[in-house]
Amino acid sequence: MDKIPILKIGHFLMVAIQVDLYDRLALNLESDLVQAVSKTGARGVLIDISAVSIVDSFMGRILGNIAGMSKILDAETVIVGMQPAVAITLVELGLPLKGVQTALNVEKGMELLQQKIQVTEEEEPEE
Amino acid sequence: MIVLSSDNIRIAKELDMVLFRNRLKEYAVKIGMGLVNQTKLITAASELSRNMLRYAGEGTALIEIVNGQRQNGVRVTFSDKGPGISNIEQAMKDGFSTGKSLGLGLPGAKRLVSEFDIKSTVGKGTTITITKWKNG
Amino acid sequence: MKLDTAKILQKRKKQILELWMKNQLVDFSLREDLMSNEELTVQSEELVDVLLQALSDVNLDDIHSIALTPVHEALEGISISRAKQGYSPRETGTFVFSLKDALLSILQQEIKNDPVQLLEESLKISKLIDSLGIVTFETFIKGREEVILRQTDEIAEISTPVIRVWDGVVAMPIIGTLDSARTQVVMESLLQEIVDTSSNIAILDISGVPAVDSLVAQHLIKTVSATRLMGAECIISGIRPEIAQTIVHLGIDLSGIITKATLASALRHAYSLLQLEVRKSAVK
Question: Where is each STAS domain found (chain C) (predicted)?
Fold first, then answer.
């Protein structure tokens, strides 16, 4: 069974989806990620989809679920690297990915997460 | 419309969808379809093949390269022997779903392709044909 | 005895060509500006060659015979190249139909003793050339359509330039009507440029769009949504007062979109989003 590796970087979890996602794999990713957020107490989740060429409504729903579930566990989710063709298709499909934050690339995604966490938690000591 | 080449793929499990999407991509690339239209076509096909798997258990997807409207296109026909759709009009509405999905499958897929045709008989099965023109 | 028209014509090939050339050269529609007489002779000779060659293999009654394929091919080539060179349909048509006169007058000289046979053979030749004429027109139109399609592609390409106005800000002025095909091209090049330059802000300037109806507005909203999905912001600028009027009259909701009257104010907004400031430098 394929598995998508989840990396922990500081306060964040990072996932780079590099394979063709089929539904089972996406569902596994969802539960693995939520488990990992809970276990590590991560404050942010970064999902890189720059290698993903197809995002259909199922995959969109999974991304939304991950963001929603992480939010309940007090972690922000940012999706980065969406390809132009995928963005155009999602708009046409009628899937706005509500509640999901996006950024152009990993670097900008990290910046966004850092900002978000600073805003919500000023009292945390600087690292 | 003239059929130039074709391929029939059985979809009975999730991994078949991956194979089917790859094969469909080959066909779209073969006629020189641009990346955005390729993505739209494959996304629509992905929605429809999942529907077929979910509601009918299995079915077939026939991929064809067709010529019409002065350009080539890719046509995909999904046929299953599932329960059928009792109210097509309702099924084509955004946000309607009998399953636990977003209800974007059918209407969303229709918006992504150039031509969309659905025929369904309750108890007999459903046939959905989509066509995406190279520049459509 | 059955007369073999093909043989007769084959024998008199040289005269047919001469006669045809003479017909063409006296015609007022001759376009020496587009093609020299030498070139025209070569072209005509080629066509007479294939035609007479085909006639010897084919029954003249059957104008759909595959033996005529090389003739059709030669004609299609000539016709398409003429369409691209800018010949009018009449000029191209005359080219083919003047061959009929030449063929018929040769036939007349050869079969002058038998009016019935002459009529019969003339009708066949006439029918054949007519069908060739139709082929000519069909391909002529096809040639023209190719020109139009190429131009359409070109217009779509050149009419959507993306400009890097600042580090992290790209702008795209849209000129002309925004239909769904065009919107896709606009979105595609704008989003690609955003990725390539990793820009956070895109400005879509619609000063050059003649009218905004609900369909165009929908296309604009889609472009903005797609830009946001990628993780960038999209500002729409260049909204003329009359466009603002129609938007409100039509009840189009643009409230989720940042709109600005001019490109300058859009740029100012972009600066503030990027926390940049433009100041006059101190005079030394």
Answer: 159-270
Tens digit of each residue's pLDDT (9 = 90 or more) over C81-100: 887 788 888 888 888 888 88
Helix (H) or strand (E) holding C98: helix C89-110
User: B23 touching A, CB under 8 A?
Assistant: no
Domain ranges of chain A: 6-120
Please report the beta strands in A17-97, taking only residues with DSSP state E, as ranges in sequence order: 44-48, 76-80
C contact test, residue of B37, B41, B135 with most C CBs within 10 A: B135
pTM, two decimals, is 0.73
Give Cβ neighbours of residue C273 (< 8 Å, ≥ 6 apart). Answer: C200, C201, C233
Q: Please name the fold of domain A6-120.
A: Transcription Regulator spoIIAA (3.30.750)
Picking from C183, C187, C192, C230 by the largest number of A CB atoms within 10 A of its own CB, the best residue to mutate is: C230
The pLDDT tens digits of the residues spanning B12-63 come to 998 899 999 999 999 999 999 999 999 999 999 999 999 999 889 999 999 9
What are the residues facing B118 on neighbouring strands?
B128
CA distance C149 to chain A (A): 24
Q: Which of C151, C149, C173 is nearest to C161 (CA)?
A: C173
Instruction: Give domain B2-133's CATH superfamily.
Output: Histidine kinase-like ATPase, C-terminal domain (3.30.565.10)
Domains of chain C: residue spans and CATH:
5-156 (1.10.490.70), 163-273 (3.30.750.24)
Domain boundaries in chain B? Answer: 2-133
